[in-house]
Amino acid sequence: MEFEVTGALMQSYTICKRQVWLMAHQIVPDQEHPYIEIGRLIDENSYQRDRKKIHFENVVLDLVRMEKDNILIGEVKKSSKAEDSAKMQLLFYLYKLKQSGITAKGQLFFPEERKREVVELTPEFEREVIKAIEEIKDIVYKEKPPAFIKIPYCKNCGYKEFCMS
Ligand code: SF4
Q1: Atom 3 of ligand 1 has which residue's CA nearest to it?
Q2: Whose alpha carbon is nearest atom 5 of ligand 1?
């Protein structure tokens, strides 16, 4: 199958490798799941003032602003509990921009917690992103998804019914 690594896959990669395979193989999660619903509501209502969705290659950037001479891209997230995966997703976007000659900084927004975090693509994070892209490809090109291993995230995952039935 032909596929491109996306921000959503990068986010899943830090949570569950099985989810990466399911998502890439277009197995549709339970859309009525409350976690997905809350995420969608926040997506629609938060930061409306300066909100712009920018489509760039296979990347959808949540929020783009000019700050002094810098381009700032942002991602709006429901909860900082999944901060690591949100950070990896944003680093992936910064990496894709850099590949197109655009230097940007990132910021994560957690509106429910009134919290923000600056994210920069340091050389170390860049190496991490490149390694993750390769590993995602390895997972997705396998014939079957990685075996189901129950993790705390499962209870909030849209694939719960699929994995646990
Ligand atoms: S239910 Fe659990 S194992 Fe299945 S995709 Fe979601 S997080 Fe991964």
Answers
A1: 148
A2: 19
Q: Output the CA torsion sign for 110, 111, 112, 116.
A: positive
Question: What is the token pair recorded at 84?
Answer: 């690591």
Protein residue closest via CA to atom 2 of ligand 1: 154
Asked whether the beta carbons of 80 and 110 are under 8 A apart, the reply is yes
Q: What is the CATH number of domain 7-164?
A: 3.90.320.10
Structure tokens at 59: 């990347």
State the distance from the centre of ligand 1 to the C-alpha of 164, rounded, in angstroms.
Answer: 8
pTM higher than the cut 0.70: yes
Only one residue has tokens 């602003």, namely 65
Determine the Cα–Cα distance for residues 159 and 22; give it in Å rounded to an integer. 8
The ligand 1 site (C-beta within 6 Å) comprises: 16, 18-19, 22, 148, 151, 153-154, 157, 159-160, 163
Q: What is the pLDDT of residue 73?
A: 84
Supply 117's token pair. 């975090």
Residue 52: per-residue pLDDT? 58
Q: Where are the domains of the chain?
A: 7-164
